[in-house]
Structures are given as structure tokens and as C-alpha cells.
Amino acid sequence: MNSEILNDCPELLRQFLFYMETIRGRSPRTVSGYYIDLRTFLRYIKSTKILKIIPHNDEMFHSMKIADISTETICSINLLDVYEYLHFVMDELENKSAARARKVSSIRSFYHFITTKTTYLQDDPVKNLESPALKKEMPKYLTLEESLELLNSVKSKFAQRDYCILTLFLNCGMRVSELVGIDLEDIRDDTLKLLGKGNKERIVYLNESCKDAIEEYKKVRKVPENASRSNKKALFLSNKGTRLTTRRVEQIVDEAMRQAGLAGRGYSPHKLRHTAATLMYQHGGVDIRVLKEILGHTNIGTTEIYTHVSNQQIQNAANKSPLSKVKQKKKDANS
């Protein structure tokens, strides 16, 4: 955990973040997400309970320090406080239901920790807190034709690397955090070890396209002599010889989309994960239970979003109706 986070944490929040990192094994990225969500919540609590002001989406709120919030204040909140906070983030911060649901999850985890791992609270004040209803939307994905166009349009100084990145996204359905974490030693013959959410490892199999793309990239992959051990073992490197960041990968995908004429459609690395899953299901006939393992989902309910049907499938179904070619018989003009 970096010093910037630690310097702006009340003691209870610091203990919670250490617990999530060291005991629960959450990744630094996940712990940082908990901190950001709970910092917003505690800024609201400080505004309303300590400063006695109505918070707004302004500089004062977003620069507010939270390290001085007491344990007593944190433990004094009730369910109504949280409902009012959720109205604030919806109305003032314009958080959609997915963002509010994530904040609810962070608050639940925080107070569950206080109740079960400390002696400050006997009863969990948010145990009955419900998550906002999430609107079920079909995932955004590229068609097979658009995927081929994307792969065929890669033009950059690091074309082999960027092509390999896109190939792995579109064939393996990995998360961007999993991609940047790949080490050379994770690749063995036709398998690739990935480190997913919650530090859970899984194995995915590499098809011919993936193996060929990796080999072509490895031919031009250059590592500076003074590179750190972590950078030397990383598969994907920047032009400085350092491990690629998630932000840099996002930029690489954005540029590839632009070159393929697909810019401005909101396609991100995560949308390429959606694309891989959809193509496997629709064109490859991959069973949903197998797809769950490939994607590293905890439960099959998450995977079910990829069982949506395409417009072509709907059209094909309509054409297969036994009545699809029946036409009205023309009546005799004399009748």
C-alpha cells in the first residue's frame, strides 16, 4: 500500500485495507479501489456529521482530508446515513447504478470487518443494506468481421507486440490486469497461466494464432541490460523496457481501433474480453460452463450475459418457421 493512501486514512480504514491486502489477499488495484470508494463515503460523513454542511460536487469536497475522522464517528453511522449518501452520489456525483452498487459493496465489506474483526461494533449497521438494481444490458462487442479488421489494421512501431496483445484479448478473453501481469515463465507449450481477481490463478490454452503471435513478438522483444528483475520477466514491455501498464494497453487498443475505423464506439480492452466470449459462444459453440472457466468467473450467473443471441440468429430462427414461405393465395377475379 503506498504512502499517499496511508497518510490519508483514519486508523480503522487503515486496518481494513491492511486486512484486505495481507489476509484476504486482495490485489493492490483492488485495495486502491476500496480506498477510493470509502474515501468518498467518509468525506460525505465528515461533511454531514462533523462539519455540519451539505456537501456538493466541488473542489472543497474532492480535496477534503479524512485522516482526522474518529473511530467514534465511523461507528456512529446508521442505515439512513448510507441511504442519504447513496442519494448524494447519484444526484451530485451522477453515479450510475453500477458505480453505486460498487460503493455499497465497499461499505458492506468495511463494516463487516469492523463488526467481526474488531471490538468497536457489536451489530453491523449496514447488514440490511441492499444494492441498487442493476440494469441488465447486453455486453458491447465486435462482430467477427470487425475483429478481423482490427487485427489486419495494426500499424505501429511495435506492430508485433500490439498485434500479440489484440490476439490474446480476442482469443483468450483475459482482463487487462491479467494481460499486463503475464511473465515469460507463465507460458508453457500451449498453456498460459493468468492471475485473476482475488489472486486466483487459472490456466488458459493457446490456439495456433496466439502461439504464432507470441513467437513473432518474442523475436523483436528487447530488454535493457539494466532492467529490473520484474521487467526482465514481463512478456509485454514498453519502448523503455518496462512492464506495460494497464493505461498504456488501453491507449494501444484505442489507437488500433482508430486505425481499423472503429473509433468512437466505446471499445476498450474489456470490450475485447466481451468480444472473445461472444465469439466463442456464438461461432465456436463453446458450452457456457467451459466459458465460465476460460473467463475466470466465480459463478455461472456472470457468464450468462454472453448467451445473448445475435440479430442473425433471430433472423435465421424466423426463416426456419414452417410458415416462413406461405403467401396469401390470390383470389379468382370472378369470385
In brief, what are we looking at here?
This protein has 335 residues and is mostly helical.
Name some characteristics of this structure.
single chain; 335 residues; mainly alpha; 17 helices; 3 strands; 53% helix; globular
Helix content: 40-55%
Strand order, sheet with most strands: 1-2-3
Q: What value does the average pLDDT take? A: 87
Number of strands: 3
Q: Rg, please?
A: 25 Å
Stretches where pLDDT is under 50 for at least 5 consecutive residues are none
Q: What best-fitting shape do the alpha-carbon axes yield?
A: globular
What is the helix/strand order? Answer: HHHHHHHHHHEEEHHHHHHH
Summing up helix and strand content along with how strands pair, one would put the structural category as: mainly alpha
Biggest pleated sheet: 3 strands, antiparallel
For the termini, the CA-CA separation is: 88 Å
Number of helices: 17
What percentage of the residues does DSSP assign to strands (E)? under 5%
Would you write up a description of this structure?
The protein is mainly alpha-helical. Helix content is 53%, strand content 4%. The chain has helices at 3-7, 11-22, 28-50, 59-62, 71-75, 79-91, 97-117, 144-152, 159-172, 176-180, 208-220, 229-233, 246-259, 269-282, 288-295, 300-303, 311-319, and strands at residues 187-188, 191-195, 201-205. A 3-stranded antiparallel β-sheet has the order 1-2-3, with no helix packed on it. Helix 2 runs antiparallel to helix 3 (28-50), helix 3 packs across helix 7 (97-117) and helix 9 crosses helix 14. It is globular. It starts with a helix and ends in a 16-residue tail after the last helix.
